[in-house]
Amino acid sequence: MSVMKRLSMIFKSKANRALDKMEDPRETLDYSYQRQLELLQKVRRGVADVATSRKRVELQINQLESQAKKLEDQGRQALSVGREDLAREALTRRNGLNAQIADLRIQYNNLHGEEEKLTLASQRLQAKVDSFRTKKETIKATYTAAEAQTRINEAFSGISEEMGDVGLAIQRAEDKTAQMQARAGAIDELLASGALDDFTGQRDDIQAELDRMGGGTDVELELARMKAELGQGPAPKSAIEAGQPGQAHQQSPQTQQIRQPGEGL
């Protein structure tokens, strides 16, 4: 295939595709219907013209018949007064009119037959135009519904794609939020353990040491409880009994100070 033929084919295919996009079937149907109405109007005008010609011939026949009858009456009148020559002239003219009337009747019959055929054709064409109009409106309604459905589907497709992007964005946001929450929790644990210094407030060293000792005591009590369950040791004591046995009998310096005056009594 030559280059020119290929270019011509490509041009025609692109032009055909462009025409398909530009063409609206509803407009095409309306245009076809309009053309049919114009043709129907022409046929009706043709019927009207033939009917007019037939009517004109009919009027001419009536006029000639009226003249022929008048000539016949004149012939009789001429014979009654002994004017045979006038009677012969009147009859000769009447015969000429009768010949014209005969020709006009033939023309009248032809026009009448043509009028009937055109009237029948007009009626058939009218029926076809009415049928086409009904079919046209049905096709237009179907096309409009299909077009609307297509737009809805395209909208849903666009929404689906958008929702997919939104879903990915939500997933990324959730992952980032979980990461930030985990990081915040780790920082809180490091601050609580003392691995990181909390510069937002003053650190209580005594409370931190007490928390550490309390945690160790809990571990020792849990270990003793497990040994007792396994029969490897006695039942664990309470924190007061295990940790500070003499604490209940010790008195605070304040209490000693309060009782010192009584001791002197």
Summarize the structure.
With 265 residues, this protein is mainly alpha-helical. The chain is built from six helices and no strands.
Notes on the protein architecture:
The protein has a domain at 26-144. Helices cover 86% and strands 0% of the residues. The chain has helices at 3-22, 25-80, 84-193, 205-229, 239-243, 253-264. The longest helix has 110 residues, at 84-193.
Count of individual beta strands: 0
Mean pLDDT: 76
The proportion of residues in beta strands is under 5%
Number of continuous helical runs = 6
Distance between the termini: 135 Å
Q: Which outline best applies?
A: rod-shaped
Class from helix and strand fractions: mainly alpha
**Biggest sheet features:** none
The arrangement of helices and strands along the chain is HHHHHH
Low-confidence runs (pLDDT<50, min 5 residues)?
Answer: 242-265
Using only C-alpha atoms, the radius of gyration works out to: 61 Å
Helix fraction, binned, reads: over 70%
What key phrases describe this protein's structure?
265 residues; mainly alpha
